[in-house]
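Researcher: Sequence recovery benchmark, item below. Answer with residues only.
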């Protein structure tokens, strides 16, 4: 563990992924160097549990709606890349005399790319949502899906040898259909009820333990049918991926997944044969170069079938030319079942380590290399052909041209107010620009894009997407260009009000509270309240950041998603008995600020005191109305009644 911690810290400082650090730690701790573990295979079961949690997390992130939305790229370029690359890398070892079963596994392992490294690097570079990266993400999405058949096939290939691979795969398919149908049925009818009941208990430990139990039970079920444990974990994650508990599940499982996955890669490093690496060093280097060239060409060829932009295709291919972490999973599993030898597995791991180490540099320069290949720099700006008038002033910049942004644009157009929109969706930008809308393609959080929209001359910058962190980046970028610019941010709820105002927003509009205000206005109007008083009340609520719209009395049917209770605000009536700890105390002497709750009212002798005097002394049978986050309200009640 000490070696792993030190390795991760060192690799982080030189901007290399943690996966390489774990592999390096495994090599050091392995039997050929420090020999800290005489029998590293003893750690295999625990490390395989790490694979289970990795696949469970992958299942949580696997989204059928996202798959459908990106189907043209996923099932076009993704399928083409996987089939072409696997076929090429299967034929090479087969021609050198390897068994067909081993050749197929090698071909599949080399065809995969690193989802973890590519996504993380793209996020840090701020290019995750551009066209080129989205093409790469589509291919990665299908590659992640393609891992599952290999996990099914490896145990069966080991059992059948080379006699009947078709029979083995057919048997795996039938078993897989049965297990998938069973687990999907359980996921649809049983698991939502289980997690709903557990969420009501508000016990963090029970939620975490149940998550771990379900992942392991699903893995155990598939293992019982002769399939991979990782397959069951993936299916369990996919079942829960569309539920309201998805993000909490992912947060709960991440510490276990990261620790056990680190252990898995350490065991992979232990199995690396240093002699194989040393004696085949130049072969490995040449193999990595050939691997990268072939993978780039295969991505370009697959993209050509669906007529994808050449610049995007070359750039995506350069991003995906490494070997992925799932390649190590497949190689380790195949070695365990005897489909691959230790030497063959060591070659794959060695090539993977070298290709992963080159990935950050390749991604940083992927567009440069792609432009040199295409020799046409103008294609990169295909979406930004909109010419913005530099004399345009007093306009509105709309960041995000989705449903809300388009609605705002229509109203501005009716009033004759100029606007420019910025959006990251290439299809939406293409459609709207063809209709004559002034829309720029780009990331609104980048200063260059904001400058292109003349934000320094704009009357207002409106952020319409409900992504608080990205909205803060837009605010920061805008104020770096013009610190006097007015920025208005739209959110769905008011959880992020203080954070957005602190970031520099001039106005934050939460949809839920504004919708409530409009409903209240209509109710007051029908109740006979003068319109002037209604408008005054609405202005006061907005100025007070919707103070009177916060908090509600919970009931038995109140739906609370796990992980959101700390964002809600409850109102609770505390009945003070004669023996209450706070009896005889003045309201001002009770540190409600430290408890982080507010006093909303006091009822005494059946009469409500709306704004109780802080000098008021609490008496028996008083009802103190407090408001705050659920857990804080519970603690405050216990403090008032019991003194602890």
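Model:
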């Amino acid at each position: 563990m000490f070696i792993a911690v030190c390795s991760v810290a060192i690799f982080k400082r030189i901007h290399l992924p943690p996966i390489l650090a774990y592999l390096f730690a495994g090599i050091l701790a392995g039997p050929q160097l420090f020999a800290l573990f005489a029998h590293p295979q003893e750690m295999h079961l625990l490390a395989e549990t790490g694979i289970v949690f990795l696949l469970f997390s992958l299942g949580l992130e696997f989204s059928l709606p996202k798959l459908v939305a990106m189907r043209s790229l996923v099932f076009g370029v993704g399928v083409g890349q996987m089939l072409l690359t696997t076929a090429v890398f299967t034929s090479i070892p087969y021609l050198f005399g390897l068994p067909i079963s081993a050749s197929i596994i090698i071909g599949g392992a080399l065809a995969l790319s690193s989802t973890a490294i590519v996504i993380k690097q793209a996020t840090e570079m701020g290019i995750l949502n551009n066209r080129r990266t989205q093409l790469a993400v589509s291919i990665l999405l299908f590659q992640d899906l393609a891992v599952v058949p290999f996990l099914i096939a490896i145990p069966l290939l080991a059992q059948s040898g080379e006699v009947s691979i078709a029979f083995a795969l057919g048997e795996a398919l039938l078993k897989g259909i049965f297990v998938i149908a069973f687990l999907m049925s359980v996921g649809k009818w049983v698991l939502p009820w289980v997690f709903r009941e557990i969420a009501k208990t508000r016990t963090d430990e029970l939620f975490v333990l149940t998550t771990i139990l379900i992942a392991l039970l699903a893995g155990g079920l598939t293992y019982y049918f002769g399939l991979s444990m990782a397959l069951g974990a993936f299916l369990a994650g996919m079942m829960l991926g569309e539920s309201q508990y998805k993000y909490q599940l992912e947060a709960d499982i991440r510490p276990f997944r990261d620790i056990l996955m680190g252990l898995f890669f350490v065991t992979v490093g232990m199995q690396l044969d240093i002699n194989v690496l040393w004696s085949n060093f130049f072969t490995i280097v040449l193999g990595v170069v050939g691997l990268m060239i072939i993978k780039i060409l295969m991505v370009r060829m697959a993209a050509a079938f669906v007529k994808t932009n050449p610049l995007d295709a070359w750039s995506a291919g350069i991003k995906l030319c490494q070997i992925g972490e799932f390649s190590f999973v497949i190689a380790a599993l195949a070695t365990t079942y005897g489909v691959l030898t230790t030497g063959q597995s060591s070659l794959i791991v060695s090539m993977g380590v070298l290709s992963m180490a080159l990935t950050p540099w390749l991604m940083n320069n992927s567009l440069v290399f792609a432009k040199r290949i295409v020799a046409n720099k103008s294609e990169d700006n295909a979406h930004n052909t909109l010419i913005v008038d530099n004399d345009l002033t007093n306009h509105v910049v709309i960041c995000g041209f989705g449903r809300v942004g388009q609605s705002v644009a229509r109203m501005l157009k009716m009033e004759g107010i100029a606007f420019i929109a910025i959006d990251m969706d290439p299809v939406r930008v293409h459609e709207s620009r063809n209709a004559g809308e002034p829309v720029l393609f780009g990331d609104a959080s980048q200063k260059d894009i904001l400058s292109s929209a003349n934000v320094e001359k704009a009357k207002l910058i409106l952020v319409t997407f409900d992504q608080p962190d990205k909205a803060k980046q837009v605010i920061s970028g805008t104020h770096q260009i013009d610190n006097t610019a007015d920025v208005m941010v739209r959110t769905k709820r008011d959880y992020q009000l203080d954070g957005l105002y602190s970031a520099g927003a001039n106005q934050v509009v939460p949809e839920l509270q504004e919708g409530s205000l409009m409903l209240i206005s209509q109710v007051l109007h029908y109740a006979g309240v003068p319109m002037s008083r209604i408008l005054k009340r609405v202005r006061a609520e907005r100025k007070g950041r919707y103070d009177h719209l916060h908090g509600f009395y919970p009931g038995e049917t109140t739906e609370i998603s796990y992980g959101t209770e700390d964002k809600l605000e409850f109102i609770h009536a505390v009945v003070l008995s004669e023996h209450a700890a706070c009896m005889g105390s003045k309201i001002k002497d009770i540190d409600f600020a430290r408890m982080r709750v507010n006093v909303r009212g006091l009822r005494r002798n059946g009469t409500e005191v709306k704004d109780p005097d802080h000098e008021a002394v609490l008496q028996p049978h008083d009802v103190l109305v407090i408001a705050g986050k659920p857990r804080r309200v519970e603690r405050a009640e216990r403090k008032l009644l019991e003194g602890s």
